[in-house]
Design goal:
This protein starts with 8 loop residues before the first helix and ends in a 7-residue tail after the last helix. It is mainly α and 469 residues long. The protein is built from 21 helices and no strands. It has a single domain, classed as Hydantoin permease. The radius of gyration is 22 Å and the shape is globular. The mean pLDDT is 89. The structure holds phenylalanine.
Length: 469
């Protein structure tokens, strides 16, 4: 059977934007910004999106389109080495880890969607969230969300993923824009904007390491980079697309939606007495926003609209997580799509239920584990692109674009030389944080440069001459 493909540019871009725009933008981004110094965090985050996120996204696009395979097959075929194929398995792991907590949060969203029209959580938003966050109810809604996700992936690349995302994404953007306009009329809007935009350099300097780590984690997560999703999606793309142009467009749209979400969520929080926007943390969306809706006229309706949009955004991301694993089974294990979809969903049914019952497991997967997996994945993809694919990567980069070849070379240098130490450094900071040792940042930086050097040197030495196709 011929490999499926997107119908055209719009299909590919909207599917990729659908993957990028999700709970990362609406749930994580506003409170991460608020907690890490407002607009100063924004500046660090935007810098990392530009310098790491977009080049990394492009590396995944190049690997996917060049190989027309999902990550395992891509790394194996492009290098001619089975070991590289094994490295690609990191993406299968990423897909399973991501889905195992994302589907639980997706379940919470569906729960709030169903509860909104009657205002079921209006009397006691905090207590309601505590009651539904973990346990049998959380598991049931996780299964529902997973079922919706699997239903779309089951339909295939065109009839499932593309058809769903081309409807969902415009709806998400339009409704959020409308809500941001409406929120500008709320009493606390001015305070919210000030908070968002006040340039708190001091707090960034104080916690430079933590802010950089949070910003890096958020930049990868929100762009769906490091999981191999974008390799998989780009394996269905046509020859005539400009990959650099598409990557830029996706990053711009994704960031715009993050800012829009902030323009909805923060004014709501600032207009509600008793809600502290800066410290409400991951509960901001569920407790803070829910409290805000409870105090507003027609809050039931507004809340239902809001959570419906969040559900669409979450779903268009979760399908891209499931697709990584399904594409692996189809490409590499000879499964039919329908069986692969049902099989992977059955696995996540179990792992997700475990994290629906255990707050500890959930916190672990959603925090340190996913950060480490995405960073490791991206490290493998950028080293591979720069040092194994090498000049061919630059050629693929330039295909169908009007960008100069010089830009492609600069991109390759960035991937091969600057990003590995940065990513290893992030891994070190993350791990030393997780195990609770404090090491001076210059020591970590030195160690990161050394380890990255060894990794790159090892890859360059091991590279075998590829058969000329
Ligand atoms: N980018 C998605 C979000 O912001 C999450 C995601 C990460 C999706 C990695 C796929 C792969 O919600």
């Amino acid at each position: 059977m011929a490999r499926e493909s997107w119908t055209g540019r719009i299909g590919f871009v909207l599917a990729a934007v659908g993957s990028a725009v999700g709970l990362g933008n609406i749930w994580r981004f506003p409170w991460m910004t608020a907690e890490n110094g407002g607009s100063a965090f924004l500046v660090v985050y935007l810098g990392i999106v530009l310098a790491v996120g977009v080049p990394g996204l492009l590396a995944e696009f190049v690997l996917g389109r060049r190989s027309r395979k999902s990550p395992v097959g891509a790394l194996r075929d492009l290098s001619g080495s089975r070991n590289w194929g094994r490295v690609g398995l990191v993406s299968v792991l990423a897909g399973l880890v991501l889905l195992s907590f994302y589907s639980v949060v997706g379940g919470w969203i569906l729960r709030y969607l169903v509860a909104s029209p009657t205002g079921a959580y209006f009397a006691d938003p905090g207590g309601y969230f505590d009651a539904i966050a973990h346990g049998p109810g959380a598991a049931a809604f996780h299964v529902l969300f997973l079922g919706l996700t699997a239903g779309v992936v089951y339909g295939g690349v065109r009839a499932g993923i593309e058809r769903a995302t081309t409807v969902m994404m415009p709806v998400v953007v339009l409704v959020l824009a409308g809500m941001a306009m409406w929120a500008s009329g709320l009493g606390g809007a001015a305070d919210a904007y000030a908070f968002y935009l006040e340039f708190d350099v001091a707090s960034v300097q104080e916690n430079a390491l933590d802010v950089a780590l949070a910003a890096a984690g958020q930049a990868l997560f929100t762009l769906s980079v490091g999981a191999g999703t974008m390799i998989t999606y780009a394996s269905y793309v046509g020859e005539d697309r400009s990959l650099p142009a598409d990557a830029t467009m996706i990053a711009v749209l994704n960031t715009a939606v993050g800012v829009l979400a902030g323009l909805v969520v923060l004014p709501l929080l600032f207009s509600t007495p008793g809600v502290d926007a800066a410290t409400s943390g991951p509960g901001a969306l569920f407790v803070g926003v829910a409290t805000a809706f409870a105090t507003l006229p027609a809050g039931e309706l507004l809340a239902a609209g809001f959570f419906a949009v969040v559900a669409l955004a979450a779903l268009s991301s979760s399908i891209s997580m499931l697709e990584i694993v399904v594409a692996y089974l189809v490409d590499e294990r000879g499964f039919a799509r329908d069986r692969a979809t049902v099989g992977v969903a059955a696995v996540v049914l179990v792992t997700g239920t475990a994290s629906a019952f255990s707050p500890q497991l959930f916190g672990l997967l959603a925090g340190p584990v996913v950060d480490v997996v995405l960073t490791t994945g991206l490290l493998a993809f950028v080293v591979f692109t720069a040092w194994v694919l090498g000049p061919d990567a630059v050629e693929e980069f330039a295909r169908g674009t009007r960008f100069s070849a010089g830009l492609g070379d600069a991109w390759r240098t960035l991937l091969g030389v600057a990003l590995p130490p940065f990513l290893v450094f992030t891994l070190f900071v993350g791990v030393s944080d997780a195990v609770g040792v404090t090491v001076a940042s210059w020591q970590l930086a030195l160690a990161a440069v050394a380890v990255a050097g060894v990794v790159v040197a090892g890859v360059v030495r091991a590279r075998r001459p590829r058969p000329t196709a």
